[in-house]
């Protein structure tokens, strides 16, 4: 495979990775935001009738639990998808011979491994232990959960930053001077 084709493949995979990362973060946040909107503004009468049958606050707790489980599933599976994307990009970078691209993709893959093998399992486990636990007074694991969540967010932002840097490298490499594209004289 020639270098322009490799760069195109890397651009497509990297674009999917970066867009997927932003979408997963937005979906995870939206899963929680929609709960309060539904409870306050849903136009479906059956929804409000069913919610009114529950003790005060129970509908919100139940819906937040559902959103938490969805987000846990999304983050676990997206983490594995990121790992596959990262491995594919590392292999393609090796084929291009670009040390900088290889370093960028390898660092991104390392961050995925940190998340997938340590942060995400800790967040999932601790998060489940905090489901349906009253927040007043704050439960013992809540502070640690916040720290893990902040670390996971920082890792995701660092990954996005590295991804932006590798996009810049790919764009820079695609601007090959015309002299390098012409066939040698006499060919």
Brief overview:
Helix content is 83%, strand content 0%.
Task: Write down the overall geometry.
Answer: elongated
Distance between the termini: 21 Å
Number of strands: 0
Relative helix content: over 70%
Q: Radius of gyration from the CA trace?
A: 23 Å
Helical stretch count?
6
Topology:
Elements: H1 3-41, H2 45-52, H3 58-96, H4 99-130, H5 142-174, H6 178-181
Question: How does this structure look, described?
Answer:
- The chain is an all-alpha fold and 187 residues long.
- 83% of the residues lie in helices and 0% in strands.
- It has 6 helices and no strands.
- α1 (3-41) packs antiparallel against α5 (142-174), α3 packs antiparallel against α4 (99-130) and α4 packs antiparallel against α5 (142-174).
- It is elongated and about 85 Å long.
- The chain starts with a helix and ends in a 6-residue tail after the last helix.
- The mean pLDDT is 92.
What would the keywords be for this entry?
187 residues; mainly alpha; 6 helices; 0% strand; elongated
């Amino acid at each position: 495979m020639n270098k322009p084709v490799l760069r195109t493949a890397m651009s497509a995979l990297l674009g999917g990775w970066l867009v997927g990362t932003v979408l997963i973060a937005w979906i995870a946040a939206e899963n929680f935001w929609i709960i309060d909107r539904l409870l306050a503004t849903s136009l479906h009468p059956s929804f409000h009738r069913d919610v009114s049958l529950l003790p005060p606050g129970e509908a919100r707790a139940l819906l937040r639990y559902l959103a938490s489980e969805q987000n846990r599933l999304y983050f676990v599976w997206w983490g594995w998808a990121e790992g596959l994307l990262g491995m594919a990009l590392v292999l393609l970078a090796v084929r291009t011979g670009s040390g900088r691209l290889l370093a960028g993709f390898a660092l991104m893959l390392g961050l995925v491994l940190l998340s997938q093998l340590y942060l995400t399992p800790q967040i999932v486990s601790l998060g489940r232990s905090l489901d349906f636990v009253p927040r007043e007074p704050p439960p013992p694991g809540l502070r640690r959960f916040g720290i893990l969540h902040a670390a996971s967010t920082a890792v995701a932002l660092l990954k996005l930053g590295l991804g932006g840097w590798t996009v810049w490298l790919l764009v820079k490499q695609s601007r090959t001077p015309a002299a390098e594209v012409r066939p040698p004289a006499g060919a």
